[in-house]
Amino acid sequence: MNELAITLDMESGVYLYEQIYQYIKNEIVEGKLSSKERLPSTRALAEHLQIARSTVELAYEQLVSEGYIEAKPYKGYFICPVGELYHLKKEQSVKREEIKKENSYLFDLSPNGIEMKAFPFSTWRRISKNVLAEHQKDIFEPGHPKGDFEFRDTICRYVYSFRGVNCEPEQIIIGAGNDYLLVLLGKILGEHQRVAMENPTYKRAYRIFSSAGYEMSTMPIDKNGMSMEHLRNSQANIAYIMPSHQFPTGVVMPIGRRMELLKWAEEAENRYLIEDDYDSEFRYKGKPIQALQAWDKKEKVIYMGTFSKSIAPAIRVSFMVLPKPLLEQYERNAGFLSSTVSRIDQAILNEFIGAGHYERYLNKMRKIYRTKHDCLLECLRPFKNKFHISGENAGLHIILTSREKGTSEEQLANTAEDAGIKVYGMSNYFVEEKDAKDEYAKILLGYASLSEEEIRNALLILQKIWL
Amino acid sequence: MNELAITLDMESGVYLYEQIYQYIKNEIVEGKLSSKERLPSTRALAEHLQIARSTVELAYEQLVSEGYIEAKPYKGYFICPVGELYHLKKEQSVKREEIKKENSYLFDLSPNGIEMKAFPFSTWRRISKNVLAEHQKDIFEPGHPKGDFEFRDTICRYVYSFRGVNCEPEQIIIGAGNDYLLVLLGKILGEHQRVAMENPTYKRAYRIFSSAGYEMSTMPIDKNGMSMEHLRNSQANIAYIMPSHQFPTGVVMPIGRRMELLKWAEEAENRYLIEDDYDSEFRYKGKPIQALQAWDKKEKVIYMGTFSKSIAPAIRVSFMVLPKPLLEQYERNAGFLSSTVSRIDQAILNEFIGAGHYERYLNKMRKIYRTKHDCLLECLRPFKNKFHISGENAGLHIILTSREKGTSEEQLANTAEDAGIKVYGMSNYFVEEKDAKDEYAKILLGYASLSEEEIRNALLILQKIWL
Per the CB < 8 Å rule, is A179 touching B287? Predict the structure, then answer.
């Protein structure tokens, strides 16, 4: 073949070489040029089309590099056998199907809400700007898999001062959120672990460990936290606990139970405690209670902290403190994984914490949340005959427990929902809903994202329908 | 007991309640106050210390909440049994042990380097500033687990225009880097997969899949990419490939092999192709070659792209396009995992791409890299007698293959290192070093992070020692 029926469009704005390339490619794709057929020489085609030979060469080169044709020395260009060819789907239908469901409630008393109004946006912006201005090239270069040393060092000092956590920067691993760190922890610990979790609990952690293939045991909670009797009778080698403020029950684990857990962990080499310290920042009576890790002398506690709860969920930065004996395992099983947090974000947070903004912000938020918390408790006074109130010393929600066996959680939630108020029944936080066997209905009331006025209005409605 | 030998220091700046709390806590920790002992009443202690009763109450409350003492109605406060108590480690030694090893090379020809000098820092800063200014509260709120819709929509349009990838935003999952997305993909696909990878390959992906418990098979590479014969003879149901530019061999997979792979994938329901399109942006001859996914009519290709290579390694943003049939599996196995990318970063990149800055930046970088690439090729002219040059049409490194059997890769790398130049032997990229059986030594020369002058100087040295 010496000619191709190409019609070039000089006005189209599409490069000539591309027009030639596209034409020949289409001919091949549509089967009009078949395997082993020879293309016209670049010189012949260039003359035929009255264009520069280099333009044809460029088109042929592109076809060669994509494997549509091949160049045989001294013989010319031949169509390659390309097997069955598929046509490109031409249509691109970008449907906007995932439109956020509008929140149809008047008030949502979610225990996971937070308040962002008091966030020092301008400080954050200023730090962002400075970080980008001061660091040019360097901050865009690859960082340490564990996170930047400076940031880990800052966290190290912070958790020591505020939580009593003893560690060195090398023990800290920064990650994009708790979920990621739990996935990573699964990689570090490796297969065949048995994890004990309280029930009800942070269900996402349960699902992450399950999906890592771990055997899971759920433990009942007594007034001091995870039942030691059940833990001892289980085969578990890892216990996942939230000593400062169990989610969702609000139990603050007393020192005695903490010591029992540490003792349990020390009894076998492969035993560990995972301390999820997710919202220890918010405590309304007296000073914050030290982390369990602070008492750990035998390197048994894996400590987890997050900025997603204390700053903003959209800030995907959490950290994990590994006991030293696990560091080698980390290197072996997961040390090759790149960091999941951008170095810019690390530098911003580093400055935010290091310069004291974080502490000031937490102090401010503690006051704000305490005001809301006190407001909620006051609004709950009329409820006291019908409900017991608990979990009120820390965290961002409180718990109402019905004093009557007759009232069901479902009933309470449904009547509230009908009145435009979303409340959260305790049964949602059991690993399986059927585990929730409590005779007395329990409802969580989160207040963090509501204003005092909203809390008052919501509670007035609940008062009308529940009392 | 009615008295405690507390000496309060009014000048210390430590709250009185905290001094009392600390004193009693220490007495308990040190065993001086023993279990079941009764504390003086708040009234008695307040009188004894000549301070307000509420101060003592606050101290007691803190001790109660931490579980050191308990309040018994009508009886008073009693020391709790706290088991064996551990002392807090007092010393906090923050050693700066992880000092970055200084790069002792004159020139490092790493194939993983990139050039950041041309990055539009000021544009990035401006966008960051605007994103933080325009969005206040909303951008700090929790985002969609897959990533924000707007950003996924932008990526969707981008990969369609530039790579021919057909998808809808719902198929896109944003994640903090390729490593994370591969870990996530492991969760989505679930257990018992057999993955075929080229050898040499991107070893980190190999390790991630291994650590997910997958059975791995390594396939030899012929001039068109992964050997189909070996793939067909393997038990693998997943093939991991880099069709636009295989790392590290630089092979660009021709259309014929792509079709064979698609055909293979269609032959069984659980077969998938993972297309890692990590550096498709940089191609120096003609136009970029369409992604394999563009030809996929039967939902068989899992497409992976990243901004860590094309913008900066420190930008931890990659994405994955799931075939529609895998979406349900995603929801079930991993849909509960929070996003790993901060919404601020998503919004910045969204604007950076959407406003055309990314395209302009890539065009600029393509020119810069092409200049370096051409410079390197020119410097390599004198090497042609002794080395074959390949992989020169795309990516950020080229490959030298010795024409003599006598020369070993180790020898070449060592003599270079002695002269202050770091080069990378091909054997480093085999899953196991022993797999590298090539008789002819192969060396990778990366040029992205060096200036033209540095390339010239480095190559002059190599010329002296290798030729």
Answer: no
